[in-house]
Amino acid sequence: MSFTENYTKAFRTLLPTPFTIAIVLTIVTYLLSLSFGNKLPDENIVIQESFEETLLISNSDNTVWTYFDTGTEYTVTNDTLRLRHQKEILDLKAIIPEKGNSYKTKLKFEVSNMRQVTFVNESTSKSLQLLDHWYEGLWSAGLMKFGFQMMLMLLLGHVLALSKPIDSLLNKITPICRSTAQAALYVTLFTVLVSLFNWGLGLIFGAVFARKIGEFAVRSNIKINYALVGAAGYSGMMVWHGGISGSSLAVVSEEGHFSKIVQNQEILAELPDTIPFTETVFSAMNISVSMALIILLPLSMYLIGKKVKPSIIRLSKPHIEIEEETKLIGAEKLDHSRLFTSLLGLGFISFAIYRAYTHPDFSELKFLKPDFINFSLLGLVFLFHKSIHKVLEAVGDAVAGVSGILLQFPLYFGIMGIMNNSGLIGDISDFFSTHSNETTYPILTFFSSGVVNVFVPSGGGQWMVQGPIILETAINMGLSVPKSIMALAYGDQLTNMMQPFWALPLLGITGLKAREILPYTLFLMLVGAVIFIAGLLLF
Asked: What's the pTM value of the predicted model, to 2 decimals?
C-alpha cells in the first residue's frame, strides 16, 4: 500500500466528520475547564462582629452586597461591607466574582441564636455554571452574525463561480494548457489570484478549471497528469486566509468585535477597536508573502509538471438537465429578466462604490468589512448571472457547500463561551507567554494554528476558538496583534493541503480521489511553509 493510501486511511480511521470533532472538542474543553479552573472563593470571606452588633465583612474580590434595612433594599459594590444588624432584620446576600474567570459565588448571611453571623453557600455548582456559559455562547447574537457573514461569503463566492462570464473566461484560457506543466502553472496562478479575492469563488473556480482542462485533454487526445492539475485547483485554499475574504482578518476590521470574544477587561482595554486591512491584508509582510505565493507556487507546480508522467485520461460525462421551455406569463417575466437583474447588480455595485468613496477612512481601507464584501459580491452575482431565476438555481447548487459549517459554528461559539468564562484562555496565554519570545511566538502560533486546523477545518470557527488566546498572549507579551493574527491565518490555511474536508467539492467536480491529489498538495504545503515562516521571521 502506497504512502498516500496509508495517509488517506489514517485520516478516515482517526478523524470522524468535522461536526463530530466539534462535539468532541466541546466535551474536552468542558472537562479541561473543570479540571484547571480556580476553586470557588468561600475561604476568602472574613467576618468580624463587634459587641455593638456591627458587622464587618471583607473579601479579596470586588463583591456585590445586597441587604435590607427597615424595608429598603441596598446594593453596594466593594471589597468590604460594614453595617449594624439585628437578628430579625439581617437579610444580607453577596455575589463574589472570581478573578480571571466568570464563576460567581452566591452567599447568604444568617444570624444564629448565639448572635453569631455565618454564611451559607447558595452558589450554582461550577459544572452547571460552565454549562450556562456554553449555552449562552451557542446563541450569542454577535457571533451568530459573524457566522452568517462567513457562510454568506462562501455561498456568494460559489454562486459567482457558477456564472456564465466565469465559464467563458475558463473556456478561453483552457486551450493554452496543452501539457501537464502548462496546465499546472495556469491553474495554480489563476486559482491563487481568485482565492485572494474570495475563497468560495477560488475553491469552485479551481475545481471547474481543472475539470475543463481534463475535458479539453480528452477531446484533444492530450496526455496529462490529471491529479496534478486537480491539486493545482485546490491551491487557493492555502492562500485564502491572507486575502480580503479571510475570516479572522475581515472580522477584526469590524467595530466592537473584540468585546464579543474577549472577556478580560484589562486585555480588552489594551486592544484597538478595529484592526483595518491596511495592517493585515495590505501590510508589508502579507503583500510580500502573497507575491511570493503568486510567483513560487505556480512555478513549483510547473517544475513538478515537467517531471511527472502524463497519461490519457477518461472522464465520465456530467449529467446535464435540459429545461423545458415554458411560456412566461405575468410576474414570471421579471424573474427571468436580464435587464432587471443587470440594473439591480449595477445599483448594488454603484452604491458599494459610493459607500467606499464617502467613508471617512477611505484611504485606510476601513470600509472593507464583511458586510461590505458580501454586499459587493451580491452585486456581482446579479451582474454575472442572466436572471434572478439563474441566481436562485446557482444558489441551490452552492448551498450544500455551506451546510458543512452551518451546524459547526454554534458549537465553536459554545467552546469559546466555556474557554472565555472558565479562565482557561488565561491559563493557556500564560503558558505561551512563559515558553516563547518575540521571535518564537509568531512561529509557535503558526504551527499551533496548523494543528488546530486539522481538527477545526474552518477559519471562522478556528478564530472563535484560538483567537482570544492569541490576542491575550500578544497583549501580555507586548507583541504586534496584527502580526499574531496573520500567523494564525497562515497556519490555518497551510494545513488545508493535508486536510481533505474542503477538497470535497473539488473531488466531486473533477472526479478525482483524495489519495490521487494528496502527494501534490503536500508538496504545495512544504513550499507554502517555507514562504510563511520566512515572512514571519523577516518582518
From this structure: 0.77
